Amino acid sequence: SGNALSGSGGRGINIREGAKIVIADNTYSDNVSGDVGVSGGAVYTKAAQSVAADGVYQDHVQLSWQPVSEADGYIIQRRLTDAQDSFYEAAEVTSTSYVDMALPSKTKYEYAVQAVKYIDGRRYPGKLSGTVTVRTKAAMSDCESDLPSVMKYTGRKIEPSFNIYLDGSRLVPEIDYKVKYYNNTAVGRATVAVTGCGQYCGYKEFTFEIKISSGESAEQTNSFSDLKDLAGSVSDNCVVAVTAKGFGGKLLSPSVRHSSSSYILDSIQSAKLISGIEITSRRVRSSGGYSTYGLWL
Which strands form 61-66's sheet, in the order they lie side by side? Predict the structure, then answer.
């Protein structure tokens, strides 16, 4: 309205500097016979469609959208929703996807995309697309648990109940995280892997010890590739007896009783056993409050 337009012999329309024109269907085409040409004005391209967050992580967000046929590129607009900031230009790309990197975790953002057209070196951004709102995820590496440190040996898989907390809130299993147990049957150290889902990502491992109560007994079989692997399984205040299959189960060294598991391992190694021999099984039996570890090489 109020702009002077002049014909050009059926080959286009020129408008003066500073005037604006909206082309039918928000499209732009080159100034050839029968088309509409623009001189000195602003060009309005179509808005990008189907803007989506394909991936939301702890420190980055992956966006995509449908291409706009006449666009030379796309401007990614971003703002913090919690702060009610105005949109600002985060980047300009020529593809129909963008990964916004180095973001703080647990932060809510709103994104929009503008198709852009370049004419004679000048940039003409189009309309803003519809918006998509995301929240960067929290890292499970920062979580804490109330997992028991010791559980009683039962001969069956042990899966103790426990809670996971992050930033003072208790998370919901199967919604915020999933759990897997490892090595949770035999006497020794069991591992619990907690993996985030939903608004949480990454994982963290917790451990607990499986022990035999005084006065009780149990038998089990484990495999070790080296005596050093035994270090995580021998408890303090235990009795260790070492035998060898090749010698009909003959005892290779006296039983060793000490309050330190490291001392017991040193004593086993000082018996001049051949290093690297595979330890194929282990029997554990409680004896007056002590645990007896029988090792077959």
Answer: 49-56, 61-66, 97-100
Contact (CB, 8 A) for 142 and 196: no
Q: Are 164 and 177 in contact (CB under 8 A)?
A: yes
Query: Is residue 115 within 8 Å of residue 44, measured between CB atoms?
Result: no
Ramachandran region of residue 84, left (φ > 0), alpha (ψ -120 to 50) or beta? left
Q: Please, how many CA atoms are within 13 Å of residue 227, restricted to the half-sphere of its CB?
A: 22
- DSSP state at residue 136: P
Structure tokens belonging to residue 165: 């907390």
**Tokens 């330890």 belong to which residue?**
279
Phi, psi of 56 (to 5 degrees): -125, 125
First-to-final CA distance of the chain: 95
The per-residue pLDDT for range 249-291, each reduced to its tens digit, is 444 444 444 445 555 555 555 544 434 333 333 444 444 443 4
Q: How far apart are CA 233 and CA 239, in angstroms?
A: 13
Cα–Cα dist 222/248, whole Å: 20
Global pTM value: 0.57
With tokens 């990964």, the residue in question is 99
Helix, strand, coil tally for the chain in percent (to 5): 10, 45, 50
